[in-house]
Design goal:
The chain has 112 residues and is α+β, with helices and mostly antiparallel strands. 46% of the residues lie in helices and 11% in strands. It has a four-stranded mixed β-sheet.
Length: 112
Amino acid sequence: MYYKVRYGKKYIRSFPEEWLMYNIKGTGPNECANCEEYGCIDKIFIGYCKNCAEIVYYNKRGDGFDKNAEEDLLEGVIIQPNYLDVEKYNIINYLVFLLLEKIQHIIMPKMN
């Protein structure tokens, strides 16, 4: 998955720069454990947790993730900002890649 590095964290490449510049203290992957836990895929931040999205940003930055980003995106039950629509197929392809990689390790464990 394509990403950019800002403030020592990986963000999906389409994450709005304006949001990075005007991030409210206590939110995002650098300051909120829930954002880091639920809003990341393979340590790449793609969106805020549900708490930050609702309480701090009043859903102006999406509905937020309350399980994990993979499940919420694949279920399609939450409304996410436009920048994720652009990345949807890249994210799904990346998730398929990660899944295939896990399957390969199960089927063909490393030989010592």
